[in-house]
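YdbS-like PH domain-containing protein, pasting as requested.
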Amino acid sequence: MPYPDQLLADDEKVVKHLHPHWITLLVPTLLLIVVVGLASFLAAIVPSGGAEDILRIVIVAVAAVTAVVVALIPYLRWRTTHYVLTTHRLMTRIGILSHTGRDVPLNRINNAMYEQSFWERLINSGTLVVESAGEDGAQTFRDIPDADRTQQLINRLVEGDHDRRSRNAARYEARYEAQYEAQYEVGHGRGHDDPDRPTRRMELP
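Structure tokens follow.
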């Protein structure tokens, strides 16, 4: 599912959108199978009698509540956990009813690295650690699918963002210098070889 465009800036594009690795749903799925199987077995062996229907209703109700707790809630938690890497930032959105969000601009990311156990290498999962400047420090993201390529992609985007900002700053400074020189020449009627013409350079923050 593509990430909602209304959450992005005008010139921002989604590069990668991830949920936690599917392995996080393995245990809830197995528990759901056990709950359904056990409920079916108990409903089938309910002795005949006046309370037969009531007992079956109780079994189904308990099974339904258990299924919600062990399977539905973990699935919704997985489904509503978003790791979104864009051309501008790394976004994290987590929560079913209450939501938690965090954005780390690419220009604040110092480094990205990943860790994989032998088991995680087999299923192509891993832990991603993103180090950023400021108060955020290092953030750890567990159960990230394709963690090694995601780490490489983050580092490439950080380098590309730095290059883009440098080019934009150089173009802006050149345009600022050209406008200043043009205004000076119009006001003084002298050309570029005027020894009295002051030089002015823009100081970027």
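Note for the archive: The chain has four helices and seven strands.
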